From TrEMBL:
Pfam families for the chain: Aminotran_1_2
Biological process, per Gene Ontology: aromatic amino acid family catabolic process; lysine biosynthetic process via aminoadipic acid; tyrosine biosynthetic process
Domain Aminotransferase class I/classII large residue range list: 102-489
Family note: Belongs to the class-I pyridoxal-phosphate-dependent aminotransferase family.
GO molecular function, one term: 2-aminoadipate transaminase activity
Cofactor dependence: pyridoxal 5'-phosphate
Superkingdom of the organism of origin: Eukaryota
Protein name as catalogued: PLP-dependent transferase
Keyword terms, alphabetized: Aminotransferase, Pyridoxal phosphate, Transferase
InterPro entries, per the entry: Aminotransferase_I/II_large, Class-I_PLP-dep_aminotransf, PyrdxlP-dep_Trfase, PyrdxlP-dep_Trfase_major
């Protein structure tokens, strides 16, 4: 198919919320083109004057990713021998930089053109969106948390329904519940969403969930799932997408851990770090995005700089059909207005100095570093379990292939007082009882693991309770080897004491 034959996205207006339909676009934003025209006598909008802006120059220091070759990165990471570079935004006068006057001014609520251009090229080279439908676009926002909240507002009225994985990032669940939206959990296994469960629930909706509307949206965390650490198999994505088409559902793909993908973990091994000769080889190792198969424009993908540059930059973007993004844009106009011009200026300055290849080098560096962290964590975890001889009391989730989380399950039926506690707390309370018990004992010993129940998605029809295990989530992202070793030793000591 040639580019001219690629069709436009479908229209999803029939799924929009009342709030979205009653919100128009801001008239003032249509005047921005005049403001940017130096010939214009622009008396039309309340903009403060440049000479009164607090900053006149921005300088930053970053890693010099542009000058590395892909296959040099692992070497540089091992020796921590990453060169630094300085960017000086007003003095360098690069035409790709965002002008300070524009960065600090109102306007550009869609995102600064230079940054939009860089990111669009990056996304297309990665996911080939231009090959699936023609009118795709991106919209800069303040990160995925805002991305989700704004999509809920565009699509959902109170009482509408969204499908979630049966464990889910807790802020997502809170945002959904706060807007009075129903959620229905879909089962997951070690390879992500169980397609049969999704198909079963959708095809039997009227009998299973007769009291709530059919879902308009589905939300997934495909790589390095938070909290489960799992990665959704690419083959399942195609099957899931077909179901979304059949039941007319829009997909929210929240993928902050995409670039934290790692090679498979092999127990106790610390293999040589991978070396890639070119980008193609590296990209071939990565999962697909739903964007690559989305011929309808029913996928909205949330990208975030939080895990690649630091959560404090509060910058992300949504990729999807322009028709839908225009509605998100209208919401931006009355909420965040625009994402921080300073963050955009800094990120844009850094990315354009690196170039597209340097950006990929950066992701390669993340992969190498995260692989080392994950391998150290899991090797230490398995060694501790062996040393303390507690294998029968603990199950470790399939090793993460992306992201920063690992999950363990305590086999509570093996606990010495399980039968007594089951009578005391009942089948609805037994898992919570043990979760609290271990959480508190760990905290007393100065160890923090997140409780699995914080992430459980309730089904409106029944309580999903576990009788045989309780879950705990750990992370290796920002933990030193010393703290990891000591933390896991504390964990195993307490498990041994409790279960023996
Ligand atoms: C699945 C998921 N989505 C979103 C976020 C938050 O992203 P952001 O900082 O871009 O709002 C997190 C952070 O932990 C997350 O795990």
């Amino acid at each position: 198919m040639t580019i001219d034959q690629i069709k436009e996205s479908l229209c999803f207006k029939h799924l929009y919320s009342q709030e979205c339909l009653s919100r128009g676009s801001s008239p003032i934003k249509t005047t921005m083109k005049y403001f940017l025209d130096p010939e214009f006598h622009f008396l039309g909008a309340g903009m403060p004057p440049l000479e009164l802006f607090g900053f006149q120059n921005f300088q930053f220091q970053t890693f010099d990713m542009g000058s590395y070759k892909l296959n040099e990165i692992p070497e540089a990471t091992i020796n921590n021998n990453i060169r630094l570079m300085t960017g000086d935004i007003s003095r360098d006068e690069q035409d790709y930089d965002i002008e300070i006057a524009q960065a600090l001014q109102y306007g550009n609520s869609r995102g600064h053109p230079a940054l939009l251009k860089f990111l669009k090229e990056h996304i297309d080279s990665m996911f080939q969106v231009s090959r699936v439908y023609s009118d795709w676009d991106i919209l800069i926002n303040n990160g995925s948390t805002f991305g989700l909240e704004s999509c809920l507002r565009v699509f959902c009225n109170r009482g509408d329904t969204i499908l979630l994985e049966d464990l889910c990032y807790s802020s997502t669940v809170e945002a959904i519940e706060a807007q009075g939206i129903n959620h229905v959990p879909i089962k997951m296994d070690s390879n992500g969403i169980v397609v049969e469960d999704l198909a079963h629930k959708l095809s039997n909706w009227d009998t299973l969930y007769s009291n709530i509307p059919k879902p308009k949206l589905m939300y997934v965390i495909p790589n390095g799932h938070n909290p489960k650490g799992t990665t959704l198999k690419d083959t399942r994505k195609v099957e899931i997408y077909r179901l979304l088409q059949k039941y007319d559902i829009v997909l929210l793909e929240d993928d902050p851990y995409f670039w934290l993908q790692m090679p498979d973990y092999v127990k106790y091994e610390d293999p040589e770090l991978e070396v890639f000769e070119n980008k193609k080889q590296f990209f071939a190792k990565l999962s697909k995005s739903f964007l690559s198969i989305d011929t309808d424009g029913r996928v909205l993908r949330f990208e975030s700089f939080s895990k690649y540059f630091g959560p404090g930059v509060r910058l992300g973007y949504v990729v999807g059909s322009k028709k839908i993004l225009d509605n998100l844009w209208n919401y931006h106009e009355v909420s965040l207005q625009a994402s921080s011009g300073i963050s955009q200026l800094m990120i844009n300055g850094c990315l354009n100095r690196w170039g597209q290849d340097g950006f990929v080098n950066w992701f390669m560096r993340l992969r190498t570093t995260y692989t080392q962290k994950r391998n150290f964590c899991l090797n230490t975890l398995y060694k501790s379990i062996d040393t303390f001889n507690i294998n029968e009391f603990i199950t470790v989730e399939k090793a993460p292939q992306a992201g920063m989380f690992f999950m363990i399950y305590l086999n509570i039926t093996k606990h010495r007082d399980y039968s007594t506690n089951l009578i005391k707390y009942g089948k609805n309370g037994i898992s919570d009882y043990y979760e609290n018990l271990f959480f508190e004992k760990f905290v007393e010993a100065k160890l923090l693991l997140a409780k699995g129940s914080w992430f459980k998605v309730k089904d409106p029809n029944y309580d999903v309770c576990s009788l045989d295990s309780c879950m705990l989530r750990g992370t290796y992202a920002a933990v030193t080897p010393e703290k990891m070793t000591k933390g896991l030793e504390i964990m195993c000591t307490i498990i041994k004491e409790e279960f023996k």
